[in-house]
Amino acid sequence: MPNWTHLPVGYHGRASSVVVSGTPLHRPKGQRKPEDGPPTYGPCRLMDFELETAFFVGKGNDLGDSINVNETADHIFGMVLMNDWSARDIQKWEYVPLGPFLGKNFGTTISPWIVTMEAMEQFIVPNMEMKNPILDYLTMNKDYNFDLNLAVSIKGENQSEYNQVGTSNFKYMYWTVAQQLAHHTVNGCNSQPGDLYGSGTISGPEQGEYGSMLELSWKGTRTVKVGDEERKFIKGTVQDSHEEILPIKCFMSGTYRAESNAYKSPDDGYIPPRVQAYSYTPAQSAESGTNIDDGYVAPRNDSQTEGYLQEKF
């Protein structure tokens, strides 16, 4: 995409199916288009996770106003981990030309804890270097990127423990959360307390640092080792019983690193999402065509969560 180095590419989502970590979800059904033949209807066969974070708005802006990129600290309350579960086969058929719809809206998992931006300040690192000159409204006068180590593990229905499939770091994000919020409001769109903004898939430069199975398997051209199994996506086994629910668990963790290795716990708090959810497509995923989230960030140095995907056939 020629635009992703000039603006934070994104799309609007929905908040009705944004759920807290541990909430059961079912494998979605929808239209799938085989290489040859007409569309078919059935359960998703290319289920995926997306390793993301998200931030909550604390103080909003009025309709018609915009938020200055260097004043967003007054508007962003805190961050969570997020998994925007993705049905890749449904998404592939439907997303042209208007973007994801049923491939995304069946469930997004977020953490039950929010880490405030004040607590995140000690982990600030330099912003990513821009590949092209950017417009003034996106130009920052300070660093607002974060050193947050991330990992993804999967436990299948026949596995007794989680198996790590990838790692990443939030510092690989091309656009900062400040630039994302400034861009979303530059046209006068209002934001309100509790609005949720997803970061987009967080992927690093190396093969093992990709934030989704789509990227890890390189669009299904190679397998990913998950314990004693190999797979390309989050698979499920069809059993004889149509009533059986088969749990597939996706586990994501984040660790904040600082030279002092110290971390002050913020006040506990949870802001439920409002009617607006917004997710960004990161530059790192542009070539592979992905865009968006599981998670949990607890108010301590090491934080982790589980998001549950359940299948019913």
From TrEMBL:
It catalyses: 4-fumarylacetoacetate + H2O = acetoacetate + fumarate + H(+). Gene3D superfamilies: Fumarylacetoacetase-like, C-terminal domain (3.90.850.10). Residues 281-291 have a biased composition (Polar residues). It comes from the Eukaryota. Residues 22-41, 281-313 are annotated as: Disordered. Keywords: Calcium, Hydrolase, Magnesium, Metal-binding, Phenylalanine catabolism, Tyrosine catabolism. The keyword Chaperone does not apply. Pathway: Amino-acid degradation; L-phenylalanine degradation; acetoacetate and fumarate from L-phenylalanine: step 6/6. Its cofactor is Mg(2+); Ca(2+). Its EC number is 3.7.1.2. Residues 4-229 form the Fumarylacetoacetase-like C-terminal domain. Pfam families: FAA_hydrolase. InterPro entries: Fumarylacetoacetase, Fumarylacetoacetase-like_C, Fumarylacetoacetase_C_sf. Belongs to the FAH family. This is Fumarylacetoacetase. It comes from Oikopleura dioica (Tunicate). The lineage of its organism: Eukaryota, Metazoa, Chordata, Tunicata, Appendicularia.
